[in-house]
Amino acid sequence: MEIEDFFNQDNIVDLSFFNFRNAITAAYFADSDLRILKVNDNFKSFFPILGNVSDAYFPDVLKQLGVADEDVQTFSEKLINDGKVLIPDISITIDGEERVYSLLSAVTNDESFSYLNGVQGQFVDRTRENELRKQQELLLAEKIRDRELIEEKTKKLEDLANRLAKYLSPQIYQSIFASTNKSTTNFARKNLTVFFSDIEQFTEISDGMEPERLAFVINTYLGEMSNIAIEHGGTIDKFIGDAVMVFFGDPETEGEAIDAIKCARMALRMRQRVDELKDVWLSKGISKPLRVRMGISTGFCTVGNFGSDQRLDYTVLGGPVNLAARLQTAAEPDTILVSETTYLLVRDDAECNHIGEITPKGFSRPVQTYQLNGIVAEASGQESDGTLIRVGEHVEVSISDTDNIREAIIELKRIEEEFEEMSQNKGGGIGGN
After folding, report:
1. 327 shares a domain with 403
2. Does some domain include residue 180?
3. Mind listing the pLDDT tens digit for each residue in 265-323?
């Protein structure tokens, strides 16, 4: 006689199923042939549409619940092959409400009680969890869409900013996009050096050109002049036809003297570049060379945003602006006229000759004018930044800004090493002052 014969089968089955009586899951116990022997109260409350499922074939119960045929087949195959099966999501509609369950089942083996051998399992209600997951997926999808929308808007803004950058001087563009100040009515009084240039008789030259050729000439000219202005730290104010206006000293300045020197260097480089472009324009069939007049003046101007609510222009106003424009008009072709205030700032570094007095239109008193011919430091093939001027073996140090002291020391050290190397090669001492 076996041990199981000493016990009541129903009591043993009921005792083994005790843990499922008060479970929050819908539990069942079936024999080896998948005939349901026992279910807990939750099983009945979960699936009232089933009624009495005792002795029902469990796969048929699944089908009656509306479980997909492929899930039913998966259940049977895995139970046979693996001894256990988990179907994570089963959607079942009960009384018009869709609910989601997971089904976990396993084969049971008991050496002492053969009638406990079968299959036990449980349905876990995942409806709320599924709703939360769907909400998370929805939020994630919305987040992805929002990110894509932000990326799209950001790209459009970047494209707009890149296009806008072409209409503004780099310094002004930077100050607008880097500033946290929303005010558009800020004005300042600053000592600026203002530059004007204009092509002589350009109207007559352009009247005889085809539109494409005219566009090539003016775009090449303005493009080259813009590059030179930016390289020298100038703020491009505007183009008026073929005329160019640039100023130095705002929004950044290295001191009025260095600003004036930079402007002088820029003007000389522009004049040189126009001469270099003659061959380029000649190759395009433009036989008459372009000749440019330039004017420079230094003085206190008002700088800021001027205009209306619909359109603002960041520009400078004041007597030095008008004077620079008048000097440009009075200059001979291929020459650069500077005012006396500019001359006094650059005379130690620039080659200038006195032209005389002129009374510009709109001015009540005559002004002294000078013609800018070159920069002294350029005689050695090196440009001065206002800190060091080197000619041959003579070095002059001129520091107007304490921020440049470190750079001056480094440069002097390099020049010292150069002189020592020259001395060793020559086999003699260092010459110079």
Report:
1. no
2. no
3. 999 999 999 998 888 888 877 777 889 999 999 999 998 888 777 777 788 999 999 99
